[in-house]
Amino acid sequence: xxxxxxxxxxxxxxxxxxxxxxxxxxxxxxxxxxxxxxxxxxxxxxxxxxxxxxxxxxxxxxxxxxxxxxxxxxxxxxxxxxxxxxxxxxxxxxxxxxxxxxxxxxxxxxxxxxxxxxxxxxxxxxxxxxxxxxxxxxxxxxxxxxxxxxxxxxxxxxxxxxxxxxxxxxxxxxxxxxxxxxxxxxxxxxxxxxxxxxxxxxxxxxxxxxxxxxx
Length: 215
Description:
Layout: E1 2-8, H1 15-27, E2 33-39, E3 50-53, E4 84-88, E5 92-94, H2 100-103, E6 110-113, E7 123-131, H3 137-144, H4 146-153, H5 156-163, E8 168-169, E9 175-177, H6 178-182, E10 202-204, H7 211-214
Parallel strand pairs: 1-2, 1-4, 2-3, 6-8, 9-10
Antiparallel strand pairs: 4-7, 5-10, 6-7
């Protein structure tokens, strides 16, 4: 059984984002795959999705509703989850095979090479896979002094990249950024549509626009 997890908190993303992700996962996997959603509000979420409360984490108030909350999935135990788990953000679009994300470098922390920091060994956590429990020190160290770590690194994916020296980047064609990779440069984007490479499985919508904005 392959396991994919996502997180939904606050009001920016409604249950339709979780349900859409679930539908896409079923379309682009050929093996048995389950979706877990860690959330503070289960209303409207498809009953076939396993919903769990948000994992507990001590967050300074200014970052309580930011991606820093994703650090909570590095704790151990993490409910009943074991082995390699794939994390997907809600604001991405699945366009191709997901099974290969479970076959690639098993047992490693695999992540997107951040599109705006190529060559700097910084991951983008829109899509990452990690072995539950192997890097629990990431969570433990953050819990000891979350304010100090936040002020030092500012962004959770930079903190992760500095803590895990052996991160492995997905092949560059597998995950693309809509605005950094696919959208034509100005002014061509006014009349030219974004082009999707054949090998791409994930299109990430970091910041704005959201997928609904570009339809």
